[in-house]
């Protein structure tokens, strides 16, 4: 038998029936046409999406990238600010330790990234803004952790040595608005001989009669006229290897053997002894050697 070339579909209702006849060729044609139509819709939809929606998507990505870069820049600026605060904390830690006569902590460990941040990515690896930011955050986190441990150590050390703090030379013998430094610590030209000579303290020029204060608690071990060119002089032993000298005084206000507290007036500025004018010659000695008094004048904001 030959193949059936026509197909009949009978449509029945309660009242009548209908026959729909179509050939095999028309069935194939209809199927192909439907497939082409579906394919056209897919291709057309893809084109429309690419033509009209893709630019919007790309524009959206560009906007998001700009926002991301802006955020990264803002975070980097914040990191720089935090790093400057951390550097200040490190310096403050050292100042407190100097004030308390405590050893400094290990700056090599603490200053990770100083002089160029420590980068966490492998050498030669491609870098981008996010990698740099991530590296900086890790470095800063490390520094904060180390500094936190340093402050814990500082707190424990101060607890051990708190009794000695009131004895440390820590303030300027004159109020900050009453003097200027006329001669610094170290070698200088002698005003009498014009020769190079070691100056074991600093000279604070001030009006005659300006009150002179003890820079720390201690015992007065000398309070009289000195034959060594210092004129009227007071020497205070603060213990723990420290003593201070106040020379060229106009008047002496304490006696040998008395105990003085920090800030107590012990005399007045003068020009007695080997002096060219009213000033206070002030010395700080540690373990038998003179040291720069400026390191122990914490109350003067100009220093």
Radius of gyration: 44 Å
Please provide the count of β strands.
14
Count of individual helical segments? 3
Percentage of residues in strands = 25-35%
Helix and strand element order: EEHHHEEEEEEEEEEEE
Helix fraction, binned, reads 25-40%
Class based on secondary structure composition and strand pairing: alpha+beta
Q: The CATH topology of the largest domain, please?
A: Glucose Permease (Domain IIA)
Count of discrete structural domains: 3
Question: What would you say this structure looks like, in words?
Answer:
There is one protein chain. The chain is α+β, with helices and mostly antiparallel strands. The protein has three domains: 57 residues; 84 residues, no CATH class; 117 residues, Glucose Permease (Domain IIA). 39% of the residues lie in helices and 26% in strands. Strands 3, 6, 7, 8, 9, 10, 11, 12, 13 and 14 form a ten-stranded antiparallel beta sheet that branches. Strands 1-2 form a two-stranded antiparallel ribbon. The chain has a two-stranded antiparallel ribbon with strand order 4-5. A hairpin with a 2-residue loop joins β9 and β10. The chain is elongated and about 145 Å long. About 7% of the residues have low confidence.
Structural key phrases:
Glucose Permease (Domain IIA), 3 helices, single chain, 10-stranded antiparallel sheet, 14 strands, two-stranded antiparallel sheet, 303 residues, alpha+beta, 3 domains
């Amino acid at each position: 038998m030959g193949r059936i070339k026509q197909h009949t579909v009978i449509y029945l209702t309660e009242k009548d029936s209908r026959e729909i006849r179509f050939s095999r060729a028309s069935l194939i044609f209809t199927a192909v046409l439907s497939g082409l139509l579906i394919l056209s819709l897919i291709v057309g939809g893809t084109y429309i999406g690419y033509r009209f929606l893709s630019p919007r998507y790309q524009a959206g990505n560009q906007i998001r990238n700009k926002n991301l870069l802006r955020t990264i820049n803002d975070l980097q600026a914040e990191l720089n600010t935090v790093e400057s605060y951390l550097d200040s904390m490190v310096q403050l830690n050292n100042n407190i330790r100097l004030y308390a006569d405590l050893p400094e902590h290990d700056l090599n460990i603490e200053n990770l990234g100083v002089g160029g941040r420590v980068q966490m990515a492998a050498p030669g690896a491609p870098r981008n803004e996010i990698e740099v930011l991530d590296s900086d955050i890790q470095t800063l986190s490390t520094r904060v952790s180390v500094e936190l441990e340093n402050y814990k150590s500082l707190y424990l050390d101060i607890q051990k040595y708190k009794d000695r703090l009131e004895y440390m030379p820590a303030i300027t013998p004159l109020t900050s608005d009453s003097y200027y430094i006329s001669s610094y610590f170290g070698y200088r030209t002698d005003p009498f001989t014009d020769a190079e000579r070691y100056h074991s303290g600093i000279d604070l020029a001030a009006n005659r009669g300006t009150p002179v204060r003890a820079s720390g608690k201690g015992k007065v071990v000398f309070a009289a006229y000195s034959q060594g060119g210092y004129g009227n002089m007071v020497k205070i032993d603060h213990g723990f290897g420290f003593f201070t000298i106040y020379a060229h005084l106009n008047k002496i206000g304490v006696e040998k053997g008395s105990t003085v507290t920090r800030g107590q007036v012990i005399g007045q500025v003068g020009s007695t002894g080997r002096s060219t004018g009213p000033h206070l010659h002030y010395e700080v000695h540690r373990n038998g050697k003179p040291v720069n008094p400026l390191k122990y004048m914490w109350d003067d904001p100009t220093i």
